[in-house]
Each structure stands twice: as C-alpha cells, then as structure tokens.
Amino acid sequence: MPSIASMHTAASPEHEGRKETPATGRPHPHPHPHPHPHPHYSDVAEQIGPRLPGAIYQNVDGRFEVLSLVTDPADAAALLRRDSARWAVIVRDTLRPDGQPFAVGSVWTTSDYLIRPARTAYASAA
Known about the structure:
Shape: globular
Distance between the termini: 30 Å
Strand content: 15-25%
Helix content: 10-25%
Number of strands: 5
Structural class: alpha+beta
Radius of gyration: 14 Å
Mean pLDDT: 76
Low-confidence stretches: 5-24, 32-41
Strand order of the largest sheet: 4-3-2-1-5
C-alpha cells in the first residue's frame, strides 16, 4: 500500500472554505476558516473530536470514514501543507464509490455528527 504522504504529493493545498478541488472535484470537509485555532479549541483532543480510526462521521460535505489520525506536527504540516498544523485526519468519503483517502485538518464542530464510533481494542474471537 502506498504511503499516505505519496498519495498527497500531487494534491492541491487544502482550501479555505467548502469548495471542490479542480483536480479531483472532491469537496473538503470544512477546513478551519482561520489560520490558528480558536481559544476554546486549545486542546488537540477537542479539535479532533471522536475522529479516531474506524469512526464514520458526516457533515454537509459528505460522509467520511476515518482511516488514520496523524498527531506528529511535522507529518501533519506536510500532509496539509500548512506549517501551523498540529494534527491531521486521513479520511475517505464513503458516499463516493471512487473516494480516495485525503487529509483534513478541520476542527470538530456542531455541524459534524458521528455515525459510527471508532474501533475499540481487538476483541477475542472465542
């Protein structure tokens, strides 16, 4: 499987606002409209919300399965092409049959809602 970084090398930077990218036509889940987080989003866990691997959430832009959570700031900044990024979520739009994984850095808001919680620890098959 190709690395997440290699999947995003040709992608355009994340848009400010809910617009489609010219190359893919894929809408981005609402990126944060400001270059820095709001003071009430001071905690990274609050910004990420319940978007852990395996979770599915929905908003006006689509329904997204969380494939990976990147919490290393250097990796997140590279994926999002934004120096201020502290984390990134790799998602796939499940409403698009050809949905390809892409990185988002938008904070969890009241317009997002959880459809399926993240996977829990592996359960015994017995």
